[in-house]
Specification:
single chain; 2 strands
Amino acid sequence: MTNRLQQYVLERQARVNQALDEILPPADSRPSTLHSAMRYSVFAGGKRIRPILMLAAAEARDWGTGHDQLGAAIECIHTYSLIHDDLPALDNDDFRRGKPTCHKEYSEAVAILAGDALLTLGLLTLATHGEEIDYDGLNRKFRSDRTAVVARAVGTVDGMIGGQMADLEAEGCVPTPELVRYIHKSKTAALIRASVVVGSLCGECVEEEPVLHNSLCLYGDRIGLAFQIVDDILDVVSSSEQLGKTAGKDAQQAKATYPALYGIEGSRRKAQRCLEESLDALGVFSDRAWALRGLARWIVSRAN
């Protein structure tokens, strides 16, 4: 990561963390155990890649500032998925980002509720950011497009939940290219793509420049897939200390992954191809998309 990109990432991480602190209920507010667990998982670490990609997409579209809480909403939804993914009924992991997972620090019941609460808070923030919320039932039109984009990315048809189900059912099966691609595009790439799309939807005149919007959609799709391919590679070649979670679990559980199907070098070539396609998609942009280009290169470089 270049010095310019590193500074960019650090600045936006700080902004997203501040926004997370603003939208999350205080840890001592009732029910305090649940709010404490939500904050524990959200602030346990993490690079904030998804919200940073969202902010970089908004900047590429020249939509200005003031979108940090939308990024925080996406991070809440991402954290919900990690909490549930770590539960004994799914991946059964004791550590996440080098710390005990939510169900280990609290309990399985609290972890389930904390994940549910983070998903709900994330969607509410996406739906109402920039609007006055009327809890008395008066009609008010909220912006719904960005909420729909993320809700679909979380859902069962081609989103995280559907990808997680396919991942479970594929354990121990002989992986096929179609199956592995579906799992990866749904379980991980869908929310990364949605993050970029939300950034493109931060302005009021998206329809005036559909080429720019569609290019960002393609960029998000390709770099989202690359991210999961690299993640699969790192599970094979890295230690648990490097990952902050248990390494080698994909092979232990006979998961349908790119390395299982194509090997490490073949997977690296697939990730590199995704990088090239993501950069090609940004060809219609000026230097305002420099951060998106840099983030894409950095995401794929981790596989090496």
